[in-house]
Amino acid sequence: MAETLEFNDIYQEVKGSMNDGRLRLSRQGIIFKNSKTGKVDNIQAGELTEGIWRRVALGHGLKLLTKNGHVYKYDGFRESEFEKLSDFFKTHYRLELMEKDLCVKGWNWGTVKFGGQLLSFDIGDQPVFEIPLSNVSQCTTGKNEVTLEFHQNDDAEVSLMEVRFYVPPTQEDGVDPVEAFAQNVLSKADVIQATGDAICIFRELQCLTPRGRYDIRIYPTFLHLHGKTFDYKIPYTTVLRLFLLPHKDQRQMFFVISLDPPIKQGQTRYHFLILLFSKDEDISLTLNMNEEEVEKRFEGRLTKNMSGSLYEMVSRVMKALVNRKITVPGNFQGHSGAQCITCSYKASSGLLYPLERGFIYVHKPPVHIRFDEISFVNFARGTTTTRSFDFEIETKQGTQYTFSSIEREEYGKLFDFVNAKKLNIKNRGLKEGMNPSYDDYADSDEDQHDAYLERMKEEGKIREENANDSSDDSGEETDESFNPGEEEEDVAEEFDSNASASSSSNEGDSDRDEKKRKQLKKAKMAKERKSRKKPMEVKKGKDPNAPKRPMSAYMLWLNASREKIKSDHPGISITDLSKKAGEIWKGMSKEKKEEWDRKAEDARREYEKAMKEYEGGRGESSKRDKSKKKKKAKVKMEKKSTPSRSSSSKSASRQLSESFKSKEFVSSDESSSGENKSKKKRRRSEDSEEEELASTPPSSEDSASGSDE
């Protein structure tokens, strides 16, 4: 016989909701761990008094009763597992696992039995339904009638809010059956009544969620938050965890109370109660109990008179009453020496605390993620700047949390912490001998390849290259033309009055060749720059008259099914709707998908047909535009062909000047001094030069004086 039995995907019924988790049966007892909250229920083997096997909506279920009256229900078993469980109970717990089915006759009259914390409505020996009395929020009586009201269940789409029982009158004297029924319910119901005095009161405490200043009254079984607008009563049984976290400024402290189920205000749910304290605030506290009662109830954990920091007193009292450990940050230290990391989650900035067994983010909205529910973590590049990075966590249920805008200096510390906790890092890559599974995950090593760091370096190189290219483009003309030695020579040649007039024609030719080479090089480079810029400048806009591209089979199906998905899941968000649609499409049969594939193919053919018509129409319009442009060009050419008077006069003057040129003028042009003069003349404007030549043709005296120079 096996020492232990383990079952996955078992559902525990708690206050009307079904919590998924894992059930483990051992010789010592039964342990159930909730997958959502991580809460562990431990039933000792010696406490079990009865075990019942029965058929339920989710297959088969197990109902367990204990000596102190508690009832535990677990559903999701297969019929074939009965024999295995029955033998285990006989061997280790010495209990007979009885088969007892529910009555399905549909009758609405029967007998009510109160057993432990259950109200059972029976017909004969078979139960019809059972009501956990801890789920009752109010009990009212009338004439021969009892009304039970229930706490609202946030996890269920439909919640049972009220049940009425008709209690027939009896002939017994002195006993009212209606009042007896109500007293049995109220003795076990979760009806919070502030009877008696509070053990202690903390005045005007700053609360971040729900926001405001509240007086906290500590009662033996519940916590009462009294504010100016709202009041909250929190039973200690709903407190899941306690956290005491130091603020990054080392002057304040957060005290976080995790709640399940959460406190409600309208449609808002508060899963965490967050109190903010200053370290400098002190308090002297006196409990409203005598010393004997304090010693008997708290066993030395509290004393009648206490004094110290306000946050220490609150946390100490809460720890004693709730009987749960207080979680504090472990040995993690960030770049600045603080035990937390500044980051942003969704739209708000806050603090992320790496703990020994999870992460907690405060404060808006508060998030607590346990290591055992993390599938993998991911270090991603920051979306806005390279000075920060994002830390992503994905749970085994598929929920993703992204903590952004974390300073780059925190990367090494956080990476080492995650590695030491053996969490799966998505973007680290696989190394030799590394198993990607959670259990065999290797420890951090200084020589290991850091994928995030390498990617950041690569992006830095690309940015530097782009910056160099842009600086080369902007400075090309300046860099090429800036040559101090050459520039000085050119200036001396053209504009210096002491320039050598007796330089040989070979030197002049070499200078001209060098200038031509420079000009050609500049022109070539300018052409290359223009060709590089062309693709950016020429950008065609999208024609609004063009036919729209056809949708895929999945998109056609999604548009047709969107409203149905919304009606099946009221209040679903856009992202969740997309995920749900993807799941439905993935699980759809091949035959159903073929129908949408055919529709997508028909849409594609219609699109191709419409495109042909559109392109044909566009071709005709472009031809008409070209013909119009040609007509306009012809009209312009005709206008240009008619010569103006000014142009005719200029041509006439040119002919005169050419005819009046003498031999001396021609010979002076060929001399070296004439060559220098011709350079100077080329600097003048063409119009003035033509007028001078036309009006006064050069004489022999002018040419002689030019040669004497």
From TrEMBL:
Main location: nucleus
N-terminal signal peptide: none
Xref: SMART domains: HMG, Rtt106
Biased composition (Acidic residues): 470-496
Residue ranges flagged as DNA-binding region: 547-615
Ranges annotated as biased composition (Basic and acidic residues): 534-546, 577-624
Cellular component annotations (GO), alphabetically ordered: FACT complex; nucleolus
Keywords: Acetylation, Chromosome, DNA damage, DNA repair, DNA replication, DNA-binding, Isopeptide bond, Nucleus, Phosphoprotein, Transcription, Transcription regulation, Ubl conjugation
Record-given protein name: FACT complex subunit SSRP1
Name of a matching Pfam family: SSRP1_C
Molecular function, one GO term: histone binding
Family, per entry: Belongs to the SSRP1 family.
Gene of this entry: SSRP1
Bias-annotated ranges (Low complexity): 497-507, 643-659
GO BP term (any one): regulation of chromatin organization
Quaternary structure note: Interacts with MYOG (via C-terminal region). Component of the FACT complex, a stable heterodimer of SSRP1 and SUPT16H. Also a component of a CK2-SPT16-SSRP1 complex which forms following UV irradiation, composed of SSRP1, SUPT16H, CSNK2A1, CSNK2A2 and CSNK2B. Binds to histone H3-H4 tetramers, but not to intact nucleosomes. Identified in a centromere complex containing histones H2A, H2B and H4, and at least CENPA, CENPB, CENPC, CENPT, CENPN, HJURP, SUPT16H, SSRP1 and RSF1. Interacts with isoform gamma of TP63. Interacts with FYTTD1/UIF. Interacts with SRF. Interacts with NEK9.
Species in which this protein is naturally found: Phyllostomus discolor (pale spear-nosed bat)
Domain HMG box: 547-615
PROSITE patterns: HMG_BOX_2
PANTHER family linked to this entry: FACT COMPLEX SUBUNIT SSRP1
